[in-house]
Each structure stands twice: as structure tokens, then as C-alpha cells.
From TrEMBL, chain A:
CDD domains: TM_PBP1_transp_TpRbsC_like (cd06580). The keyword RNA-binding does not apply. This is Unannotated protein. It is found in: Cell membrane. The chain crosses the membrane at residues 34-52, 59-79, 85-108, 115-136, 156-182, 213-230, 250-272, 293-311. It comes from freshwater metagenome. Keywords: Cell membrane, Membrane, Transmembrane, Transmembrane helix.
From TrEMBL, chain B:
GO terms for cellular component: plasma membrane. This is Unannotated protein. Residues 5-240, 257-501 form the ABC transporter domain. GO terms for molecular function: ATP binding; ATP hydrolysis activity. The lineage of its organism: unclassified sequences, metagenomes, ecological metagenomes. InterPro entries: AAA+_ATPase, ABC_carbohydrate_import_ATPase, ABC_transporter-like_ATP-bd, ABC_transporter-like_CS, P-loop_NTPase. It comes from freshwater metagenome.
TrEMBL record, chain C:
It is a multi-pass membrane protein. One of its GO terms (cellular component) is plasma membrane. One of its GO terms (molecular function) is transmembrane transporter activity. The chain crosses the membrane at residues 12-32, 110-132, 144-166, 186-208, 242-265, 277-298, 310-335. The keyword Nucleotide-binding does not apply. Keywords: Cell membrane, Membrane, Transmembrane, Transmembrane helix. PANTHER family: ABC TRANSPORTER, PERMEASE PROTEIN (PTHR47089), GUANOSINE ABC TRANSPORTER PERMEASE PROTEIN NUPP (PTHR47089:SF1). This is Unannotated protein. Pfam families: BPD_transp_2 (PF02653). The lineage of its organism: unclassified sequences, metagenomes, ecological metagenomes. InterPro entries: ABC_transp_permease. It is found in: Cell membrane. Its main location: membrane.
Length: 328, 502, 353
């Protein structure tokens, strides 16, 4: 079909070919690079799911960054204080949902400007985490890597996909289920209707406000999960400004992926690969690049990606508008 | 058998307006009742009360003999009341099937049962004889077809009483005829129908009984057999109205506006104006008739510099105007009453005074160089408010405080305040009360008599026929015919609008 | 003119921010209590340090100077319908540009060197703003994402430039040389001169917004882009100009901070100033003059924070928390609605014809 020949899919093809080429030259390094890329990509993709869930029902969530930061902080510090990373995980999902709920209150009930509402969440997150931050804390352990038997023995894909921690698998599961839920279930149909044309949904007996509340809160929980993944599985620590703009990059990936969970996942993978390759080039001393350029690479990519795709892709039509009941 | 709908003594007071004053109405199965009235007569308040969306101060609403209460919209729907909205309640990017089943989807566990949904839609469309393609995407369908989907959506819920809110506003005369047949068929099958409208000939054609509302009051019941269009109009407006506008024959002068080979894309980047040639002379009104969405909006926007012309030129008094330069085009002599006054015509959070100079704020006498002359802006506003009878306590009030008719007067006043060579008026009386319509019509004719060339675009065929000196019919992005208004025949124009060859 | 006049006489304009500040302080106080600190002691130290003496007040105004400018930058954006959350990056670029001009251009008299150094700051801040403005106007990329990304990019780039090219010779710290005396801003009556520049600029901005055709263009684009386009205003150009001016003002903030306070560029110096600008702009209801009290308040908190940490043992990050809470409560409609002149708004909105 013609609609599959998008720029995004060409990107994916290009990356697949490049990876295949590198793999044929040096299998083990390529595998480890791609595996690193996958670890980079997953939190970005998960964070993009937060955006997709909100925007598909018509709420712009610019507060993803703050949600990630707060939940990563809570995950780390609660784990540290209770010496139990499961409690940390639970707490961070709870705080994520709470922030989602807060966004819902501000944007759905109070009908605030959603960009400002999200910014408030971001600034609150920065204020809270930097005030409450204490240096020198540690957690008992990160979530351990669990290699899935048999699957891990598949060459290349085994290491890339099946040698990760439990939150990685769960995150991947969340992304795939969101895709199915959004396009195959009644919840998905209703959510999308609410995001595209809320009064149609309303007149068909779908409660716009309730669905928006539910979805934005669940999205917050996914944000909490993402924060946990970062501080309890991927990195194992927390510092001020820990999330470094991932929440904003996620928004770009959401747009690049056309508000489709799989599209965003692919876009995140493209991001992860770029970074992993750049790192590898530096480690191999193939090129001499100051570290600063590696650091700013994802930000520049985000802007480029948006400049390419924004305006050309079609956002959910009711995005950003509070819903007012009008006629019968 | 009890009546399907029985409203007794319904009264609703809004701050400053008595929206419904002791209104009673019964509708029986198989009957078509028309609710006739102007904008603001209280029709929509009545319907909202039926759906439990507003709380009446007094009165009772019974559906099939059961009293309904405020807030129980679901109960009203369950009792078999369906509604076809004026603004279609359809999700443009979804399919016909998805739209029809939305909210009550056939399912397998959490998943939508697409096969069953599709089968339901096909069965439904066969049962009522309304053909639709279940897999088509709504936004790809013509408006008449979209309305069919909207009707099917309402019928799916075993509707006993169907309320249609201004259903013909966007249809061609032929589509209107089809719709009226559908209404009759539904009534014959036992559905009670309430038709809300302000168009007299529809009432005459289809209604069994008519309830006329004016200013919140029930003026009375009548029927097509007992009354005629003029009688209905008098009941609706409260005085005898001139259905024809008084005007002297035009004295056309030199060509003022010349459009040559114009081609324009719409928002979806599809060619929607496919090579239009037009000439409007000084001192004449050229009306463009057509079903909405046939390129009129794009034509107007391209002429006025708000939309890119991919081919062709627009001349004013022989001088070519620059593409995409609303400012220069305005300065060159075209003024423009935009179709969407809320979006383009006004800044609602600005005062009336600022809105009256919206496109002249940077020229003398409203500005001297870089600095605005605010006292001039204000004296100008006081003059215009008085001259155009804009109902407001002060010109310093925000534009958002005005009623629709008065907002439109602000826009019209601004565009007519300078005597320009060409006036492009798009849907100049949409959503405006009768008093303001008359006023605006007279202003357009006065402008013509002063020698302005007027290009009038309207979806109301009556408006076109009564104001224009010549009528151009637009269909499928082209001007398919231009006729002298003396020779214009409703039916003939209707066929052209529908895209049929003679 | 008419709108802004009405706004400044609205009771809510003054009362709401005040209440927001009080509620925020109470909540932050409770959190301090939980941390085992004494909130009264902390607040007392905080405000006595910054407002209790001439010297302290001078320091407060010094801290407030870049904040007025950052707040003004965000305000100008908001007026044109743009949410510039990248004042931070623009301010940093301005600071670096100014510092470079301040120490490399030698042999110039102060009356030439100082303005040139300031212009460098405005130029680089404006340039960064322009990038975001152009991306918005021509590619439809939302300015919130671009400006936040540009913040990080500028952070990395300036770090790179200072580490590899502009580092003070023989210095281990990542910082530039000091600007020459000829480019430093003087003190007037022991108050920093930059503060007067900032206040004057705010006043000029207010006058321009209220009385000129350019101001009207900005406002119209900010309130209704479509009507602006219809009225013959070039929306793209206005958006770009607004972002450029907004960035230029933020850049000036960096310049003034560099030439009046820090005398050199060090990446850590300007942390958070641009973000404070967001809070200040919203606290001042996006009114060019309304931002001044908020800037002084927050400047005072910043000025007194380290003494508060020393005396009461509360982390300086308390100020970040306070600002976040203030921002939340000032925008929260629960507070806002309470003071809105009720009654004038009809319940039914646009009912009727």
C-alpha cells in the first residue's frame, strides 16, 4: 500500500540497511551498539506514549518532562529510603498518575491553556526535585537484567531485545498494547473520537470529560513507569535535571511517529541508533568530536525532525481545546 | 395511543432573555411538525429542554406518556428520541461504520467486532433505503451523503421521534428534495418528526403542522393547508416582510473586478478553484450561487489575497493585484466581508472601536507614522456605531459582548466606511437576525448605487436571487453559467448547482 | 490602550499574585518544617537579608535586573501569542557574546566599548530567538519545543566554546577572562545601573505596546492570527519579529548581568534566570510594567537565599520550590475565579442571535 511508503519508513529501511552492513563487518560490536540504542530508545518511546495517550483524546501534554523528572526522583528516593525498589516503582507510578490527574484537572475542568498547564508541571517538578534532593543517596540495587531463555540465543536480536531488565519488557508490552488498544478496541475508537471531534462522541453518549480524565491519568502512570525505568533500571542513580529534556524529545517523536505508538517507537529507535553510533564513533576514535557535540546531538535532531514533519502531519483535530458542551 | 412528545407550559428565563414563554406542543407518531422561527426565537432552547440539557423554570415534558426530568439525557435517548444536528456530529477522519456505531459498538470482549458493525450498517441502510458506503471516510463524502450518515446514526437507536435541526442549510435544492422525501417516508413508517427550520418553502412542502415561534413565544399553530409563505413569514417576523428587496435596475459601468483563469488549492492541497473567469462592473452586484464547498470560499480568499493563487490574475480597474498581499489588495481597492466573522472578521477581545479600524489601524487618520491616534479611533467608532445602529452601550465594549447581528454590522460598517472600488461579501447575513439582514442588504445595494462593484457569495439562493443583478453559478470549482437575474429560474439554477448539465 | 488601562485597575491584578505568594510561602513553610528547619527563621533571614538594608536592597536590585529583562522577554512573546520558554538559552548566548566583546575589544573608551558589548548580547539573544521564530513561522514547529531544545543546545555549545576557545589562559575552571573596566556597568547611588536600563526598557515596551502600530500588530497576532492575516498584517513576519525581540531582550538580560555583576562568562552563572522569567511574566499578567514587582520579589529571594541557608539551614533551592508554587497558584483559576468581577458574564454565553 502507498501509505506505507512514508519518509519514516524509508528512514527505518535506511537504518536497517546500515545496521546490516555494519553487522556484516563486525557482528559483536554492532550488536552491542544496537542493544545500547534499544536501551536509549525505550524510555523515549515510552515517554512518547504519554503524549500519544493524551493527545489522541485532545489534551496537549507538554509536562511529560516534569512527570519523568518527578517520578524518576520519587522512584529513586523512595527505593533508597525503604531499601525496596518495588516500593519505589509503585510510588513513582503513583506520583506519575497524580501529575496526570493534575494536568487533567487544570486542562479539562479548569479549562486552562494546556501549554501553560504543562509548563506548570515542569516547573513544579524542577522546584520540588531540586528542593528535596539530597546528595549521596544510593539504592540497594537496580532491577536486574533478566535474559529470556532460548530467545536470547537468537543471533543479534537475542541480545538486542531479550537481554534486558523487567521494566524494559514491561515497557515494550505497554507500547504494543497501546497500539492494539488504540486501533482495535472500543476504548480506542472512543478516545480517538474524543480527540478528533468531541461533540460527536458526546452526542453518541461517550463522556468526553470522563474519558479525558481517565486517559490523561493513565498516561501519567506510564510517565511514572518511564521515570522508574530511567532511575531504577537504566541508570541506577538520580541527580538534579536528570531527565535532560527527554520529555520534550518524546513530543517530537510522537509527532514524527504520527501519533501512532509503533511510529513513535520506530522514531525513538532512530534516535537511539543515532546516539549509539555517535558514541561508538567517539569510543573508536574514528572521529574526534568534543563530548558537548554528542550531548547536544539529540536536541538538534529533535529540531530537525520537527522541522521536517511538523505542519505536514495531521494532529488530532481537537488537540488543545477544552470541551464545552454546546448544543443538544 | 398517547402522543410521542407532549410539552406543556414550558418556560425558561435566561438572564435578560425570556427564551421560552409558556410553550406547549404535542407530536404524534407519523406526523411531521415544523418548528418555524428566526435565530433566537427559542427553537434550540426548546430542543435542549427536551433532551434534558437545560432546566426549565416551569412546564412539563412527557415522552410516550412518561415525564422526563432535567439531566436525564440518556433517558430521553433511551425513550427513542433522536437528533440530526445542524453541524454534523461526525468524526471526519473515521469511516461511516465507525461513526454510526460509535458509543454503542458491537464488541468481542474489549475489541470492536468490525464485521458485525459493518453488517449492522448495511442492514440499517437497506431498511430505510438510504444508500451509504460503510467503508468510506466521512471527510471524503459530499455533504448530502454526510447528512445521510447522520440520519442513519440517529435511526440506529430505534428512534420513535426524530428531531432535525436546520437540516437543509448546506444542501443543493435537489438534495433538499431528496431529504424531504426521506422525511415523508420516515413519517409514513410511524416515526414522529420535528423539523426545525427558518425556510418557508420546506415547511410548505413537508409539514403536517407548523408551530411558529417568535421571541420565545408560541405565536400559533397552523398548517400548509391553512396558510401560505407570506402568511408564515408574517407570523415568524411579526410584521409583513418584503421577501423581495427594493432596488432600482443597475447601471453598470466599466469593469472593476476582473478575475482571469484563477486556480486555487484548498486546505487539503486539492485543486478547488479550477480556472475561474469573472468580471464585475462598477455599479452592479454579481451573485455567486452554489452549494458550499464548491470552491467559493477559496475563490473569495484568493481574490482578497488570503490564499495563494496557483494560476491566474485578479485585476482591479485594470491594475493587477499582488498574490498573498491582503494589505496591498485592500489598499488597491478591494474590501472584504469575510465568511467567518468570528475567525477572520473580528478580534473578539478587542473593543468595538479597535475592530472598526482593524485593517486601517496604520493609516491616516488612525495613525500618524508609527504612533496610533487613539482619540481618532474612538470618535470614528462613536460615529459608526450611531450610523450603523450597532446596539451597544459604548464603542469601548469588547466585540465579544455583541450579538451575532451586531458583530456582522461592525464588519460591514468597517468594510463600507471607505468607498472602495470593489466589495467582496461572503455569506454577509449568515446567522444574523431579520432586522440586521434587511439593514445589511440595503447597505449592499446603497454601495452598488454609489458605483462599487459588489461580488456577493452566499449559500442562500434566495439572497442571491433577490440582491444580484447577474447570477454566476459555481459548481465543482468552476463557473458553470452566468445569467441575468431577470431570467434566473430557481429550478434551472438548482440543477446547475448540483453539477447537472442542462 | 483601552485594554491595558482597564487591566491595571482590576483588583485581581494585584490581589491574586499576592495571595498566590502567600499560599506558596505557607506550603513551602510546611515542607521546611518536615525537613526539620524553622520556616519563620528562614523567611525572616531571607527577607531581612534582601530587603532589610540598603546594601541588601542594592544586591536585590542587582539580582532583579536580569529577571526584569527575562520577564519582559517572556511577556513580549506572550503578547504576540508566543510562549518563549527559551529565555534561558537566549540569555546565556547574550551573556557569552557580551563577555567575549567585553574582554577582546581593547583600547576603546567606555562610551563606545560598553554599548558595543551590550549590543553583542542583544544580537546573540535575538539570533537565538529568531531561529525559533523562523521555525514557527515557516515550518509550524511549536516554539515551546524549539526553545527548550535550543536551551540545551546553547548550554552545550557555550560550554564547548568556553572549554576549547574562550577559556581564560592558565585557568582550570571553565570560564572566560574578565571583561575590561571600560565595558563594565557602573553603580548609581550604590544601585546597579543595569536596573535602571531594565526599568526604562519595561516602560518603553509598555508605551510601544499601548500606543504604536507595531504594538497593535503584535497584540492582534497574539489574539487572533486569522483576523490579523485578514487585516493585512504579515503574521509570519510579526511572529519572527516578536521572537527576535523577545530573544534580544533576554540577551540584554545576559549582557547586563555579565557587565554589571559577574564580569565574566561562566556556564554555571546564569542558571535558571530565564526560567524565572516565565514565572515573573505570568505573575505580572504579561503586563510590561506588571512584571517589575515580581522580579524584585524573586530577585530578593535569590539574593537572600545563601544567607538563609547559612543561618536557617534551608537549601537555596527553596526559592525554586517557592517560584513553582507561586506560578501554580497564580495561574490556578480557583484563586482567579474568586476575584473575577462576577455577574457581568452571562451564563449562557452566546445565546440567541
Amino acid at each position: 500500500m502507498k501509505r506505507h511508503l512514508t519518509k519514516r519508513n524509508l528512514f527505518i529501511l535506511l537504518i536497517a540497511i546500515a545496521t546490516g552492513y555494519f553487522y556484516s563487518k563486525d557482528g559483536s560490536i554492532t550488536t552491542s551498539v544496537v542493544s545500547t540504542a534499544t536501551s536509549f530508545a525505550l524510555p523515549l518511546a515510552l515517554a512518547a506514549m504519554v503524549g500519544i495517550m493524551c493527545e489522541r483524546t485532545g489534551i496537549v501534554n507538554i509536562g511529560i518532562e516534569g512527570t519523568l523528572l518527578t517520578s524518576a526522583f520519587v522512584a529513586f528516593f523512595v527505593s533508597s529510603m525503604t531499601h525496596n525498589i518495588l516500593i519505589g516503582l509503585t510510588a513513582s507510578v503513583a506520583i506519575g498518575s497524580l501529575l496526570g490527574l493534575l494536568l487533567a484537572v487544570m486542562s479539562v475542568s479548569w479549562k486552562m491553556d494546556q501549554i501553560i498547564a504543562g509548563t506548570i508541571i515542569n516547573i513544579l517538578a524542577t522546584g520540588l526535585t531540586s528542593f528535596l534532593y539530597v546528595q549521596g543517596r544510593t539504592i540497594p540495587a537496580t532491577f536486574p537484567e533478566y535474559d529470556i531463555p532460548k530467545l536470547m540465543d537468537i543471533p543479534f536480536f537475542g541480545q538486542v531485545l531479550f537481554m534486558h531488565g523487567p521494566l524494559f519488557y514491561f515497557g515494550l508490552f505497554v507500547i504494543l498494547s497501546l497500539y492494539v488498544a488504540l486501533f482495535k478496541t472500543t476504548w480506542g475508537l472512543r478516545s480517538r473520537a474524543v480527540g478528533e471531534h468531541p461533540s460527536s462522541a458526546d452526542t453518541a453518549g461517550v463522556s468526553v470529560l470522563r474519558l479525558r480524565y481517565i486517559n490523561v491519568t493513565i498516561a501519567g502512570a506510564i510517565g511514572g513507569l518511564t521515570g522508574s525505568f530511567l532511575s531504577l533500571e537504566l541508570v541506577g542513580s538520580f541527580e538534579r535535571g536528570f531527565t535532560a529534556g527527554k520529555g520534550f524529545t518524546a513530543l517530537a517523536l510522537m509527532i514524527f511517529g504520527r501519533w501512532n505508538p509503533l511510529g513513535a517507537l520506530a522514531a525513538a529507535m532512530f534516535f537511539g541508533m543515532t546516539q549509539a553510533y555517535a558514541n561508538q564513533l567517539m569510543i573508536d576514535q574514528v572521529v574526534q568530536i568534543p563530548t558537548q557535540f554528542i550531548t547536544i546531538l539529540p536536541y538538534i535532531l529533535t529540531i530537525i525532525v520537527l522541522a521536517i514533519s511538523a505542519g505536514k502531519v495531521r494532529a488530532p483535530a481537537a488537540e488543545g481545546q477544552p470541551y464545552e458542551k454546546e448544543n443538544a | 395511543m398517547s402522543a410521542l412528545l407532549e410539552i406543556t407550559g414550558l418556560t425558561k428565563q435566561f438572564p435578560g432573555v425570556l427564551a421560552n414563554d409558556n410553550i406547549s406542543l404535542t407530536v404524534k407518531a407519523g406526523e411531521v411538525v415544523a418548528l418555524l422561527g428566526e435565530n433566537g426565537a427559542g427553537k434550540s432552547t426548546l430542543v435542549k429542554a427536551v433532551f434534558g440539557l437545560i432546566k426549565p423554570d416551569k412546564g412539563e415534558i412527557k415522552i410516550s406518556g412518561n415525564t422526563m426530568h432535567y439531566g436525564d439525557t440518556a433517558g430521553v435517548i433511551a425513550a427513542g428520541v433522536g437528533m440530526v444536528h445542524q453541524h454534523f456530529q461526525l468524526v471526519p477522519v473515521m469511516s461511516v461504520t465507525e461513526n454510526i456505531v460509535l458509543g454503542d459498538e458491537p464488541r468481542k470482549a474489549f475489541f470492536i467486532n468490525r464485521k458485525a458493525a459493518r453488517a449492522q450498517v448495511i442492514a440499517l441502510s437497506e431498511r430505510y433505503g438510504l444508500q451509504v458506503d460503510p467503508d468510506a471516510i466521512i471527510e471524503d463524502l459530499p455533504v448530502g451523503m454526510q447528512q445521510r450518515v447522520e440520519i442513519l446514526k440517529a435511526l440506529r437507536k430505534d428512534v420513535k421521534l426524530l428531531i432535525l435541526d436546520e437540516p437543509t442549510a448546506v444542501l443543493t435544492p435537489q438534495e433538499i428534495d431528496e431529504l424531504l422525501i426521506v422525511i415523508r417516508t420516515l413519517a409514513k413508517s410511524g416515526v414522529g418528526i420535528v423539523l426545525i427550520t427558518h425556510k418557508l418553502h420546506e415547511v410548505m412542502a413537508v409539514a403536517d403542522r407548523v408551530l411558529v415561534l417568535r421571541g420565545g413565544k408560541a405565536i400559533g399553530f397552523t398548517s400548509p393547508a391553512q396558510s401560505d409563505e407570506a402568511g408564515l413569514a408574517q407570523m415568524m417576523v411579526g410584521r409583513s416582510v418584503v421577501l423581495r428587496v427594493d432596488k432600482t435596475p443597475a447601471k453598470p459601468g466599466k469593469p472593476a473586478l476582473e478575475v482571469v483563469g484563477l486556480q486555487v488549492l484548498d486546505d487539503r492541497k486539492l485543486l478547488s478553484v479550477k480556472g475561474v473567469d469573472l468580471v464585475v462592473h462598477h455599479g452592479e452586484i454579481l451573485g455567486v450561487a452554489g452549494v458550499e464547498g464548491n470552491g467559493q470560499r477559496e475563490l473569495v480568499e484568493a481574490i482578497c489575497g488570503m490564499r495563494h493563487r496557483i494560476a491566474g490574475q485578479v485585476h482591479v480597474d485594470g491594475a493587477e493585484t499582488k498574490d498573498l498581499h491582503p494589505h496591498a489588495i485592500h489598499a488597491g481597492g478591494i474590501s472584504h466581508i469575510p465568511e467567518d466573522r468570528e475567525k477572520h472578521g473580528l478580534v473578539s477581545s478587542y473593543s468595538i472601536a479597535d475592530n472598526l479600524v482593524l485593517n486601517q489601524f496604520d493609516v491616516e487618520p488612525f495613525a500618524k507614522g508609527w504612533v496610533r491616534n487613539i482619540s481618532h479611533v474612538n470618535t470614528n467608532a462613536d460615529d459608526v456605531v450611531a450610523k450603523f445602529d450597532i446596539r451597544t452601550p459604548s464603542a469601548q465594549n469588547l466585540a465579544s459582548s455583541l450579538s451575532g447581528g451586531n458583530k456582522q454590522k461592525v464588519v460591514v460598517a468597517r468594510e463600507l466606511s471607505e468607498d472602495l472600488k470593489v466589495l467582496v461579501a461572503a455569506q454577509p447575513t449568515r446567522g444574523v437576525d431579520v432586522g440586521s439582514i434587511e439593514f445589511i442588504h440595503n447597505q449592499l445595494i446603497a454601495a452598488r448605487d454609489r458605483g462599487t462593484a459588489v461580488l456577493l457569495v452566499s449559500a442562500e439562493l434566495d439572497e442571491i436571487l433577490s440582491l444580484s443583478d447577474r447570477v454566476a453559478v459555481m459548481s465543482g470549482g468552476k463557473i458553470v453559467a452566468i445569467v441575468d437575474s431577470k431570467d434566473a429560474d430557481r429550478n434551472y439554477i438548482g440543477r446547475l448547482m448540483a453539477g447537472l448539465k442542462e | 490602550m483601552t485594554q491595558s488601562k482597564k487591566k491595571s485597575f482590576d483588583v485581581g491584578t494585584w490581589v491574586i499574585p499576592l495571595i498566590a505568594v502567600i499560599i506558596a510561602m505557607v506550603i513551602a513553610g510546611i515542607m521546611m518544617k518536615f525537613q526539620g528547619a524553622d520556616p519563620f527563621r528562614a523567611y525572616k533571614t531571607l527577607f531581612m537579608t534582601s530587603f532589610g538594608s540598603v546594601k541588601g536592597f542594592s544586591a536585590t536590585l542587582g539580582k532583579a535586573t536580569p529577571l526584569v529583562l527575562a520577564g519582559l522577554a517572556v511577556t513580549i512573546g506572550l503578547r504576540a501569542g508566543l510562549f518563549n520558554i527559551g529565555a534561558q538559552g537566549q540569555l546565556v548566548s547574550g551573556a557569552l557574546g557580551t563577555a567575549w566583546a567585553g574582554y577582546t575589544l581593547t583600547g576603546l573608551p567606555a562610551y563606545i566599548h560598553l554599548p558595543i558589548a551590550i549590543l553583542f548580547g542583544i544580537f546573540f539573544g535575538g539570533l537565538v530567538g529568531l531561529i525559533a521564530g523562523a521555525l514557527k513561522a515557516y515550518r509550524g514547529v511549536h516554539e515551546v519545543i524549539t526553545t527548550i531544545m535550543l536551551n540545551s543546545i546553547i548550554m552545550g555549545l557555550s560550554d564547548y566554546l568556553v572549554v576549547y576557545h574562550f577559556r581564560e589562559p592558565g585557568q582550570l575552571l571553565t570560564r572566560t577572562r574578565e571583561v575590561l573596566p571600560s565595558a563594565r556597568l557602573p553603580f548609581v547611588f550604590s544601585l546597579p545601573f543595569g536596573f535602571f536600563i531594565a526599568i526604562a526598557l519595561a516602560a518603553v515596551a509598555w508605551w510601544i505596546m499601548a500606543n504604536t502600530t507595531s504594538g497593535f500588530r503584535f497584540e492582534t497576532v497574539g489574539r487572533n492570527k486569522f483576523a490579523a492575516w485578514y487585516a493585512g498584517i504579515s503574521v509570519k513576519r510579526t511572529l519572527m519579529t516578536a521572537m527576535m525581540i523577545s530573544g534580544g531582550i533576554a540577551g540584554l538580560g545576559g549582557a547586563v548581568e555579565t557587565l554589571g555583576v559577574t564580569y565574566r562568562f561562566e556556564p554555571a552563572f546564569n542558571a535558571g534566570l530565564g526560567f524565572d522569567g516565565i514565572t515573573i511574566a505570568l505573575l505580572g499578567r504579561a503586563h510590561p510594567l506588571g512584571i517589575i514587582p515580581g522580579a524584585i520579589l524573586i530577585g530578593g529571594m535569590r539574593a537572600g537565599a545563601s544567607n538563609m541557608q547559612f543561618v536557617a539551614g534551608v537549601a537555596t533551592e527553596l526559592v525554586d520550590l517557592l517560584m513553582a508554587l507561586i506560578l501554580f497558584f497564580v495561574t490556578a483559576p480557583l484563586v482567579t475565579r474568586f476575584f473575577k468581577n462576577s455577574g457581568s458574564k452571562s451564563v449562557t454565553g452566546g445565546w440567541g442571535a
